[in-house]
Amino acid sequence: MVRISITPDATGQIDAARNSLGVEGPWYPFADGYDIQGMRGGSCRAAGHADADCSTITSPDPSVLDFPNAGGRMCVSGTVAQVLLANGTPDWGNMWGAGIGFDLNRAGTDAASRGPYNAAAHGVVGISFDIDAVPQLGRRVELPTPATAGTGIQPYWGAAAFYPNSPVQVGPNTFYFTDVFTPETTPQTLDTTRIQSVQFHLPSSQTSAEPFAFCISNVAFLVAK
């Protein structure tokens, strides 16, 4: 197994010319209180919830294209909203939380232009990363594909029908694509030919709004040799 570092530049951009796997795309924060361009709105506001009740990102600014690289650490802070009711049931679909991630095949600045990345063709079989803190709410390490992006059934590490968190621990973490599934009664395996992003998602809860702050570093793709 070979470990290939996927290192962003000072602005959070990953350049395909700087890694042997052709990975290209920016790091970015995301939350249900913002639209795809990083402006306040998003699915939470579209569903009629008050802006103050939606998830927020304190740092970095979601509306700014650059994501500061703090000495190899990609850091984020904010608040995950408490899920409120809509028509008598928790509105998970619109108040889903917050996080950060990076795209694997996006050369431009428009988030809608992200394309699929063929990890299988490059021999990529897993991912490793370091994290300095795991929020109480836990997190899911998600790998959206065009078929699942924007849905509640994005494949993630350790997924099951009851939506457990990924088994993330403080410090180094490693997982393989064989441990990535959709959270369904009949789980589907990851389509490793069409991965769009790697996302570190903090899901919301019904208990309370929760502040968060964490940093991701030393991201690498594991290549079978």
Account of the 3D structure:
With 225 residues, the protein is mainly β. The protein has one domain. The radius of gyration is 16 Å and the shape is globular.
List the helices and strands and how they pair.
Elements: E1 2-5, E2 13-14, E3 25-31, H1 42-46, E4 56-59, E5 73-80, E6 85-86, E7 89-90, E8 97-103, E9 124-131, E10 140-142, E11 156-157, E12 171-176, E13 180-181, E14 197-203, E15 210-223
Antiparallel strand pairs: 1-15, 2-3, 3-8, 4-5, 5-15, 6-7, 8-14, 9-12, 9-15, 10-14, 11-13
Radius of gyration, in Å, reads 16 Å
Net shape: globular
Question: How much of the polypeptide forms β-strand, as a percent range?
Answer: 25-35%
Structural class: mainly beta
Runs in which pLDDT lies below 50 for 5 or more consecutive residues are: none
What is the share of helical residues? under 10%
Largest sheet: 6 strands, antiparallel
Elements, N to C (H/E): EEEHEEEEEEEEEEEE
Number of helices: 1
Total strands: the figure is 15
Query: What's the pLDDT, averaged over the residues?
Result: 93
